[in-house]
Write a structure and sequence with these properties.
The complex is a heterodimer of chains A (114) and B (113). With 114 residues, chain A is mostly beta strands. Chain A contains no helices and 11 strands. In chain A, the strands form 2 sheets. In chain A, strands 2, 4, 5, 6, 9, 10 and 11 form a 7-stranded mixed sheet that branches. In chain A, strands 1-3-8-7 form a 4-stranded antiparallel sheet, with no helix packed on it. The mean pLDDT of chain B is 92. The chains are: A mainly beta (114), B mainly beta (113).
Chain lengths: 114, 113
């Protein structure tokens, strides 16, 4: 049973460029959320996708956008990259319904903006 | 979601039990207590969660006080591989909010020889 998988694991982009990160949820999960973790800090919630729609959003600008596909996989897009966008980007999956449903994380994508 | 308070850091000798406390005095009746850990440069790893009763799995035990205002994560026989940042998170179970976790600063556990 594959867990949450993310790609790429590491990438370097130039300020002003755009980046797309990809995530496949754990088998059987229908909800994907994305988190940003800057160095030395805890993960911060970006947004959540369910049924191909953004359901919740954290305090992130519109430069951060996402998409969920019919097979539940997801993409995170960041436009007009800033140096401050350098971080570990984590994908997490879960079931949308069900009490106490557990959230599982992938290993993350390390983004460096130069 | 309720706020949690954890010590910044703790040390534990290898082979001994590691007891990591968490205060969540504003927890609501339907909110669960979740524990995750994050080993350096890896994604957060789910450990255990509970609502009212004490819970145990192959990784750890979770002790929740009767008033649910605090809890303790117990790693019964800590090893060097348990060195990590441990996050205590309180979370509501309703659909639509289920995916959002609010991470605090966590407890940095250092297991030593």
């Amino acid at each position: 049973d594959a867990g949450v998988t993310q790609s790429p694991t590491h990438l370097i982009k130039t300020r002003g460029q755009q980046v797309t990160l990809r995530c496949s949820p754990k088998s059987g999960h229908d909800t994907v959320s994305w988190y940003q973790q800057a160095l030395g800090q805890g993960p911060q919630f970006i947004f959540q996708y369910y049924e191909e729609e953004e359901r919740q959003r954290g305090n992130f600008p519109d430069r951060f956008s996402g998409h969920q596909f019919p097979n539940y996989s997801s993409e995170l897009n960041v436009n007009a990259l800033l140096l401050g966008d350098s971080a570990l980007y984590l994908c997490a999956s879960s079931l949308y319904r069900g009490p106490g449903n557990t959230i599982y994380f992938g290993e993350g994508s390390w983004l460096t903006v130069v | 979601d309720a706020k949690t308070t954890q010590p910044t850091s703790m040390d534990c000798a290898e082979g001994r039990a590691a007891n990591l406390p968490c205060n969540h005095s504003t927890i609501s009746g339907n909110e669960y207590v979740y524990w995750y850990r994050q080993i350096h440069s890896q994604g957060p790893q789910y450990i255990i969660h509970g609502l009212k009763n004490n819970e145990t799995n192959e990784m750890a035990s979770l002790i929740i006080t009767e008033d649910r205002k605090s809890s303790t994560l117990i790693l019964p026989h800590a090893t060097l591989r348990d060195t990590a940042v441990y996050y205590c998170i309180v979370r509501a179970p309703e659909a639509g909010t289920a995916s959002k976790l609010t991470f605090g600063t966590g407890t940095r556990l250092q297991v030593t020889l």
